[in-house]
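Supplementary Note 2. Why include the ligand at all?

Several targets in our set were suspected to adopt different conformations when bound, so apo predictions alone were not considered sufficient. For every target with a known small-molecule partner we therefore ran a joint prediction. The input for adenosine monophosphate is given below.
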Amino acid sequence: MKIMVVGGGGREHAIIKKLKENPAVSEIYALPGNGGMANDATLVPIGAKDIDAIVDFAVKNGIDYAVVAPDDPLVLGAVDALQEKNIPCFGPEAKAAIIEGSKVFSKNLMKKYGIPTAAYEVFNDMDAALSYLDTAPIPTVIKADGLALGKGVIIAMTREEAKDAVRSMMEDKVFGKSGDNIVIEEFLTGPEVSVLSFTDGETVVPMISSMDHKRAGDNDTGLNTGGMGTVAPNPYYTADIAAQCMEEIFLPTIRAMKAEGRTFKGCLYFGLMLTANGPKVIEYNCRFGDPETQVVLPLLESDLLTVMQAVTGGTLSEVDVTFSDKHACCVIMASKGYPTAYEKGYEITIPAAIADNVYVAGAKLSDGKLLTDGGRVLGATAVADSLADAINASYALVGQIQFDNKYYRTDIGARAMLAQVEG
Ligand code: AMP
Ligand code: GLY
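The joint prediction is reproduced in token form.
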């Protein structure tokens, strides 16, 4: 079978490595992939948002199955366009990807179907938003409606900060059209949990839970990033909470999407906060998380391609999806300065013996050398019997990978360890 994976980061590398375990897979193309994946996939220089070129490539090369991983092409309708050419795909159609593509849509969906989330107001007029903020409870959270490279959420600790955020989105248009509409919502507190799920629109199968580390610095300080590391499972996510989430959040969301004529097929990511008043949805993503995928898929015991094809075919209830009871930790190695300014072009050395544990995100090949080419350069994942062992083993991997200007957090998993102790 010839498979095509659209996207080019660590998440896509993890998906590709897992798909390769199926002996029926003869060839995997990554569009565009990155130089660090060259041993696992054939790199094709077509951008993830270039839908016409993606479809053209798939048709000309007789692709049997396509996986569209990033949010942008999903929201732009890559799956719809591939399906029109009868290429089976993993991922939601555009009308379902809107669950991530528009925060106004997802908040209104949750309100309509009674799915627990932060209280909120929607604004399309800046003056109305500013006057609402004169009396709104503080802290408050300002969200741009559309996709904003994961940066469209501002937690404002003061009224002035909140108003500045509104002006930057609605007047200065820092996120372009994504800021035409904004959501102002209640500030919630509690541990955060990421739950990715497989769904064919009828059945929803949650994957093992995970915990992201979004801030750039140790002890959750510094700027928000795309994610500096992950552990799975997330110790805050107990079996009782999982059962409650299934009843109150996962199934109601799948049914709501179907009822709206927007049946969701693919990976639906639930970003949850475990508040004193129960689990609430912080965000939905229409795709696998990055770097959650780099800890979740290594723990998947079932064959990924089989599960994905069941999602596409609407037969998910007929396949077994099992996860190991081990623990995984992924530490992201970034370029110093990320998420703002950083240098690139430094040579990366990864010992061959550990290459299977490394998911490369931002690198390119040049004259046979692998060079840093992004903010997040790679993730090193270890799987072990205990969380402590997984953390130690992933840092041991990090110690064997060299490139100048490297930066990583030294406390990935520390909070999860504390949660285990508090039990
Ligand atoms: P999002 O892009 O929606 O995942 O938001 C980024 C981060 O902002 C989340 O991971 C949370 O840490 C935080 N956040 C988003 N919404 C809220 C909220 N209503 N209350 C508190 N924190 C939030
Ligand atoms: N790690 C968060 C995300 O993928 O959105």
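The domain at 119-186 is CATH 3.30.1490.20 (Dna Ligase; domain 1). The pocket of glycine (ligand 2) is lined by residues 150, 212, 227, 285, 289-290, 292 (CB under 6 Å). Comparable summaries for the other entries are listed in the accompanying table.
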